[in-house]
Write a structure and sequence with these properties.
The longest helix is centred in the last third of the chain and has 9 residues. The chain is about 10% helix and about 30% strand. The chain is mainly β. The chain has one domain: Alpha-Beta Complex (Fumarylacetoacetate hydrolase, domain 2). A hairpin with a 2-residue loop joins strand 9 and strand 10.
Length: about 220
């Protein structure tokens, strides 16, 4: 019997920005301009705070006073045991399993410094509905990811297009901080984010992992 997601995904939600190749390539000209003048050399991290946690079939509250809200379909990686200075070769041994995430955000001004006010609104990280153990996923780097709004396909990509693989992410992050059992890596949202409005039904589907849905409601 599979464990419930609520029993295993209990820790910190770590987001990875710019982890799809086309998204990174689309931003290269911007990154080569001052003040940065080069693309990021390490994973660009952000944290979805505990107030952002949301679930399947629960409302996504569209905050008053904002102009745009964007869903962010992503594969979630649930850490199964504490990981510190883990090698890339051993990294998948620390993965308990996978889930679907919709990482909502206000439009971002800077991918170098994801803003708390854009990322950490109440309910802005939906997770679920299922937890799929790692042994049931043949290849997490070959999964089709789709975003639907009101039944219409709006985004489609594949985890084969990651800039950094799951083992690379775990190795690079655990080099400077311990990842604890129950932590969740949000492995990145592909290019082409879309806007949603109150009344919209938003669904993220990842093959073999599940389908996560929210209805947007006005605050």
């Amino acid at each position: 019997m599979r464990p419930a997601l609520s029993d295993v995904a209990t820790g910190t939600l770590f987001g990875i920005a710019l982890n799809y190749r086309a998204l990174l390539e689309n931003k290269l000209e911007e990154f080569e301009s001052p003040p940065y003048q080069k693309p990021p050399l390490k994973p660009v991290l952000f944290i979805k705070t505990s107030n952002t946690r949301n679930g399947h079939d629960l409302p996504l509250v569209y905050p008053s006073g904002v102009e745009r809200v964007q869903p962010g379909p992503a594969l979630g990686v649930v850490i199964g045991k504490n990981a510190s200075r883990v090698s890339e070769q051993d990294a998948l041994q620390y993965v308990a399993g996978y889930t679907v995430i919709n990482e909502y955000s206000l439009p971002e001004d800077s991918y170098y410094r994801p803003a708390v006010k854009a990322k950490c609104r109440d309910g802005f990280c939906s997770i679920g509905p299922a937890f799929i153990p790692a042994e049931e996923v043949n290849d997490p780097h070959s999964l089709t990811l789709k975003l639907f709004v009101n039944g219409e396909l709006r985004q489609k990509n594949n985890t084969a297009n990651f800039v950094r693989t799951i083992p690379q992410l775990i190795a690079e992050l655990s080099e400077f901080m311990t990842l604890y059992a129950g932590d969740v890596l949000i492995t990145g949202t592909p290019e082409g984010r879309v806007d949603v409005l109150p009344g919209d039904r938003v669904e993220v589907e990842i093959e073999g992992i599940g389908r996560l849905a929210n209805t947007v409601v006005a605050e």
